[in-house]
């Protein structure tokens, strides 16, 4: 009894020790997680994010009524025609504000160096209570003018340290014996008004109160022009600062820096700056809560989840309440700590339980296998054969039904499996194998056969087997599943024809036979039902499936049994013709199949007629892989399909050459677009920084860079063909079967883009003045030289590359026009005309994308004119009105290109918010030869002018054409008579003249 108690005590101690180390492990891992987050800077980032979120959740608070803000903004500077750093400007502000008798004026402007206007400014400062800003560079003060420092009532530093997210959350109360600018203003204010001010901490944590729109602020122009009553500033702290310097706040992404000082002053006046609880104190409280919670480590896992989640919610609530009381209690890391400790404890518990269950499951599996398997024991010396009751039950016999002779086993084995079973046993007993294992069929009592798997080990004595002991398990269900898997792999479920995999297997056998017998020839026919989708959509999938079954049955009935018919895809079949004589025979068989399938199919009450397009590939010694033959047959089929319904075509090697040429051009265009976008991003950064005074960090940055945009370049996908050959089949019809191409690598910065925009001037006919440009793309191909759009635009539309190409053209043209407007401000009325593709026009977020590009390029919307083809607009006139109005609402001008060449529903034309009609060159070039064309042009001009639109005539090539158009009232012309399309340098020189 004592021994039992002692053993039980040790067991209890070990178990308790295990629970103890589980808790210690959870604490160590959670601590490592927190330290890692801190080391990576993520912990501080999370805290700062929650810090900003708390202000949003709390909402805005009013600034103290004793604070007034005067903004030196851009509008005031333009109106007053002064520099933001002008001493004269601030002297006038101090003089005018002094008339209102403010309590103190704080100038958040650093007056560096010595200036001739310092004396006048100092005179104005000396007459008021003014606090000046001070800062240091390399420990040297920047405000060095003794005239100003002596005249100021006080000096205050404006040193700030921003967190990684750019937000300034605190300010040091005193730097180099100078108080912060806001604190200095408060001290002067307290002296003047006698209002008591609470002592401040060495580090003042800002309690951000509201957004810039909610604060009382006035412009410098309003102050100097006397538009404000004096009581707006009387006995107040007036903060004066420029709006050029901006920094983020929890409420605004870019707030003028003067609002930082306003928040500091308001906090000090209302005595509500944040007080940050030390991390040490917070950690102690958190550790105490954790230790208390660890006492429930043995609770049920659901109770533990509630415990740790409740602790997390409680800490979050405590942090929120503390924040409302102007206390900043750490939130993110404590929550991560609590949830990670609780989660790790649960994880450790689950892992421990998992391994325990796994061990139990192993024991259970072994036990159930022992019961489920039939055991047998063959005494080789006496030839006695023991079989367990379970062994007998497997084949439907009772326990006493069979004798103890080996024939009870062997005589029931399927005749086709008997020899293999005998050989396996003999080989094992002869020492050829570590154990006996064999699958065989065993006859059931009802006469059927069941698949069994037998395993066994021999008992050897003096090198000779004495007994063979083993087990037997029923694997019939497994064999049936394997059979089903085999049939589903090699046969089509619907038609019961060989599937793609099965057909490839037959095709491989035929190829092997060609390698062995040079006289053997075969062919494959790839059949594609024409417009099967129309049948499917009109009659339904059920009748569509019945049609496929009927076609399969008719093909099998029509062709000899030696030929292989397979189903390759949804509406595609293949035929393997063996022992053919010549090409003509194959074509004849293909035409007979086409003729056979033209007979109607009666499906319920419907009589359905179908036609097929056939592609033929003939065997040849150079075909080593089935996929190559299928690739070429598919190529021929799609070429035949492109020729029209019920066509038949034999593959020629020239088809592959044409396909590869097209693929190469498509791949080159992808690379050219990628290089163009990458170069455009770099040029945008360089040119913008060279023509603006803003720092690079203040420039607008595109939400989506080149990498993300290039990742969305469409890659043509195979649709309807097996993936093993989809990369090799022609892309003749991109909506049915295209080639998968890998996206080209991102070009290095040294590579010059092949795509280039040319700009053709648009001229005012009355004066000859250039009023705008049309952007035209050119492709300087590395091997083929200069390619015009007619060579690659149609291919881009087929493959979807037109979308990234069009965006690149629009973005590049907008950036170029923005640069020209900045370089030549006297040509502010210039417009850039860009053609819009039909696929772009079908995008629902088109207006948002274009608006983003205008913002990126800093281009006024009125400088952009989008040209749409007549067919794009008129074919879906009712549905495009909203999109046109969205674009027009942005301020963008809209033009109909090549007007008069398509079908126009004039009833819709007045509803479109168009600004321009462009007369097609086909009318302009014959304007002097044909009166009909002259009247058409005259009619278009009258129509456009009646609808308050201007007109651009394209293709003007002679002076007579230009004169006639001008006489008829046409406003603008474009063509070689005026200018050919110019590259950027030539167009820039033209503007410079």
Automatic annotation (TrEMBL):
InterPro entries: Biofilm_reg_signaling, CHASE2, EAL_dom, EAL_sf, GGDEF_dom, Nucleotide_cyclase, PAC, PAS. The chain crosses the membrane at residues 20-37, 280-299, 305-323, 335-355. It comes from Pegethrix bostrychoides GSE-TBD4-15B. The keyword Cytoplasm does not apply. This is EAL domain-containing protein. SUPFAM superfamilies: EAL domain-like, Nucleotide cyclase, PYP-like sensor domain (PAS domain). Residues 360-432 form the PAS domain. Gene3D superfamilies: 3.30.70.270, EAL domain, PAS domain. Keywords: Membrane, Transmembrane, Transmembrane helix. Residues 520-653 form the GGDEF domain. PROSITE patterns: EAL, GGDEF, PAC, PAS. PANTHER family: BIOFILM ARCHITECTURE MAINTENANCE PROTEIN MBAA, DIGUANYLATE CYCLASE DGCP. Residues 436-487 form the PAC domain. It holds the Pfam family GGDEF. Residues 738-993 form the EAL domain. The keyword Transmembrane helix applies.
């Amino acid at each position: 009894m004592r021994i039992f108690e002692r053993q039980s005590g040790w067991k209890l101690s070990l178990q308790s020790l295990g629970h103890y180390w589980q808790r210690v492990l959870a604490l160590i891992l959670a601590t490592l997680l927190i330290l890692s987050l801190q080391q990576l800077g993520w912990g501080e980032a999370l805290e700062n994010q929650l810090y900003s979120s708390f202000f949003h959740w709390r909402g805005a608070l009013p600034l103290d009524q004793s604070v007034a803000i005067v903004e030196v903004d851009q509008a005031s500077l333009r109106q007053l025609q002064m520099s933001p750093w002008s001493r004269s400007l601030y002297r006038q502000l101090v003089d005018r504000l002094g008339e209102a008798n403010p309590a103190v004026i704080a100038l958040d402007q650093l007056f560096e160096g010595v200036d001739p206007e310092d004396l006048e400014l100092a005179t104005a400062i000396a007459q008021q209570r003014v606090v000046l800003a001070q800062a240091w560079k390399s420990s040297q003060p920047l405000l060095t003018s003794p005239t100003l420092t002596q005249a100021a009532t006080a000096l205050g530093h404006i040193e700030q340290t921003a967190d990684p997210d750019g937000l300034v959350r605190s300010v040091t109360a005193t730097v180099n014996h100078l108080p912060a600018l806001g604190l200095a203003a408060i001290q002067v204010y307290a002296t003047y008004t006698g209002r008591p001010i609470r002592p401040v901490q060495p580090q003042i944590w800002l309690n951000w109160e509201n957004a810039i729109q909610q604060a009382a602020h006035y412009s410098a122009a309003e102050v100097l022009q006397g538009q404000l009553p004096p009581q707006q500033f009387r006995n107040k702290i007036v903060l004066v600062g420029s709006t050029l310097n901006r920094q983020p706040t929890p409420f605004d992404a870019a707030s003028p820096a003067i609002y930082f000082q306003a928040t500091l002053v308001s906090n000090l006046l209302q005595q509500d700056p944040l007080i940050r609880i030390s991390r040490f104190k917070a950690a102690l409280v958190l550790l105490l809560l954790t230790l208390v919670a660890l006492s429930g480590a043995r609770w049920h896992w659901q109770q533990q989840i509630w415990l740790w989640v409740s602790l997390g919610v409680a800490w979050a609530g405590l942090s929120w309440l503390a924040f409302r009381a102007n206390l900043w209690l750490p939130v993110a890391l404590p929550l991560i700590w609590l949830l990670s400790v609780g989660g790790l404890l649960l994880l450790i518990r689950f892992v421990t339980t998992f391994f325990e269950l796994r061990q139990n499951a192993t024991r259970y599996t072994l036990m159930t296998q022992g019961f489920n398997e039939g055991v047998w024991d063959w005494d080789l010396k006496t030839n006695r054969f023991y079989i367990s009751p379970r062994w007998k039950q497997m084949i439907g016999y009772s326990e006493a039904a069979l004798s103890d002779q080996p024939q009870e086993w062997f005589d029931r084995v399927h005749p086709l499996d008997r020899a293999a079973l005998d050989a396996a046993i003999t080989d094992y007993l002869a020492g050829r194998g570590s154990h006996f294992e064999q699958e065989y069929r065993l006859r059931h009592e009802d006469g059927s056969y069941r698949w069994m798997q037998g395993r066994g080990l021999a008992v050897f004595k003096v090198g000779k087997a004495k007994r063979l002991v083993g087990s037997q398990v029923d694997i019939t269900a497994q064999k049936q599943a394997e059979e089903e898997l085999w049939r589903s792999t090699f046969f089509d479920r619907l038609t019961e024809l060989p599937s793609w995999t099965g057909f490839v297997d037959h095709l491989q056998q035929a190829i092997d036979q060609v390698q062995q017998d040079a006289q053997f020839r075969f062919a494959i026919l790839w059949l594609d039902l024409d417009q099967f989708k129309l049948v499917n959509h009109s009659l339904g999938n059920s009748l569509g499936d019945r049609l496929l079954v009927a076609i399969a049955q008719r093909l099998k009935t029509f062709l000899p049994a030696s030929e292989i018919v397979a189903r390759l895809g949804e509406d595609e079949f293949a035929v393997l013709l063996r022992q053919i004589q010549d090409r003509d025979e194959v074509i004849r068989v293909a035409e007979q199949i086409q003729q056979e399938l033209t007979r109607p199919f009666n499906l319920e009450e419907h009589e359905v007629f179908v036609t097929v397009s056939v592609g033929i590939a003939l065997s040849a010694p150079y075909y080593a892989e089935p996929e190559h033959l299928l690739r070429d047959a598919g190529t021929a089929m799609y070429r035949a399909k492109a020729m029209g319904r019920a066509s038949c075509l034999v593959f020629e090697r020239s088809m592959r050459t044409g396909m590869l040429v097209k693929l190469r051009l498509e791949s080159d265009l992808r690379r050219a677009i990628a290089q163009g976008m990458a170069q455009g991003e770099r040029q945008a950064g360089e040119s913008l920084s060279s023509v603006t005074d803003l720092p690079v960090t203040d420039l607008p940055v595109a939400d989506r860079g080149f990498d993300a945009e290039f990742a969305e370049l469409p890659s043509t996908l195979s649709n309807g063909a097996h993936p093993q050959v989809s990369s090799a089949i022609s892309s003749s019809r991109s909506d049915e079967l295209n080639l998968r191409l890998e996206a080209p690598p991102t070009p290095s910065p040294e590579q010059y883009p092949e795509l280039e925009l040319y700009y053709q001037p648009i001229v005012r006919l009355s004066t000859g003045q250039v009023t705008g440009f049309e952007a035209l793309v050119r492709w300087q191909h590395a091997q083929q030289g200069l390619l015009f759009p007619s060579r690659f635009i149609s291919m881009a539309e087929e493959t979807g590359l037109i979308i990234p190409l069009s965006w690149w053209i629009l973005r590049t043209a907008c950036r170029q026009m923005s640069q020209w407007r900045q370089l030549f401000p006297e040509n502010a009325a210039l417009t850039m005309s860009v053609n819009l593709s039909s696929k772009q026009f079908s995008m629902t977020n088109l207006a948002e994308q274009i608006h983003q590009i205008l913002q990126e390029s800093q281009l006024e919307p009125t400088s952009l004119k989008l040209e749409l083809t007549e067919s794009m607009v008129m074919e879906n006139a009712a549905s495009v009105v909203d999109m046109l109005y969205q674009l027009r609402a942005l301020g963008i001008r809209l033009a109909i290109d090549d007007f008069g060449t398509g079908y126009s529903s004039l009833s819709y034309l007045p509803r479109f918010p168009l600004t321009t009609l462009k007369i097609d060159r086909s009318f302009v070039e014959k304007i002097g030869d044909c009166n009909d064309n002259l009247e058409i042009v005259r009619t278009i001009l009258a129509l456009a002018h009646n609808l308050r639109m201007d007109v651009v005539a394209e293709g003007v090539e002679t002076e007579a054409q230009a004169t006639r158009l001008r006489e008829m009232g046409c406003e603008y012309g474009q063509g070689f008579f005026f200018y050919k399309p110019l590259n950027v340098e030539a167009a820039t020189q033209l503007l410079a003249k």
